[in-house]
Amino acid sequence: MNARERQTEVGDHLEANARLTGTVAIVLLLPLALVLATGLAVHRFLLIHALIGFLLIPPVLLKLGSVGYRFVRYYTGAPLYRAAGPPRPAMRLLGPVTVVLTLVVFGTGVELWLFGYRFGFAWAPVHHASSYIWFAAMLVHVINYLSEAPRLALADWRDHWRGASSRQTLVAGSLLLGIVLAAAMLPLPTPFALSTGGG
Question: Dihedral of the CA atoms 8, 12, 17, 18 (nearest 10)?
């Protein structure tokens, strides 16, 4: 493979990664809004809040994976990834914070659903506080990419460019896996279901 072919291949990877990231981002918008809304009235909607949260875990991990891949390629010096440039300065600073907050929000949520206060009472306030900060960070993130993400998400449906079906399958598969995970968690007894009447 000569240098030009190699450059074209990396460019294709860059575009494919951007399309996957944009598609997952659009798919996540409504469920993330719902998980926030149900979290504001968690004592009434605990079960719905938890199930949406579990459903979101696989697509959120897919989004983190696609963004993380570009991050690694950029910082390991891949030429076209470097040429494409870094995110806007604010997004470059906000990105790692958003990733950490995402892991904290979902991690503490799963811990609370499975174990309640068995390992201490700090998990609930950490979950709640990190959720509010995470929402603020995500709001800034969404506003900054609102014009770009829909274009990327629709691109594969419009032109069926190489790998489009694989990317669509990845996104659909992550949602299906999320449904399976939520269904698997549903019958598990949770300390909070007992104290809230199951939602």
Answer: 100
| The residue type at 33 | A
* Per-residue exposure over 57-80, b if at least 16 CB sit within 10 Å of its own CB, e if not: bbbbbbbbebbeebbebbeeebeb
Q: Which of the 8 DSSP states describes residue 78? A: -
For residues 39 and 131, the answer to whether their CB atoms sit within 8 Å is yes
- pLDDT, tens digit, 9 for 90 and up, residues 85-109: 887 888 888 999 999 999 999 999 9
Out of 19-33, 122-136, 177-191, pick the least confident: 177-191
Cα–Cα separations (whole angstroms), residue 48 to 27, 51, 52, 195, 199: 18, 5, 6, 15, 7
Rounded Cα gap, residues 57 and 118, in angstroms? 23
**What pTM, to 2 d.p., does this model score?**
0.85
The confidence band for 66, taking pLDDT boundaries of 50, 70 and 90, is very high
User: How far is CA 23 from each of CA 121, 176, 187, rounded to the nearest angstrom?
Assistant: 37, 15, 31
Token readout for 21 is: 């990231």
User: How does 128-142 read in b/e, with b if 16+ C-beta sit within 10 Å?
Assistant: eebbeebbebbeebe
pLDDT of residue 188: 76
Residue among 102, 121, 122 nearest 36 (CA): 102
Query: Helices (DSSP H) in 41-190: which residue ranges?
Result: 42-75, 79-84, 89-115, 123-145, 149-159, 164-185
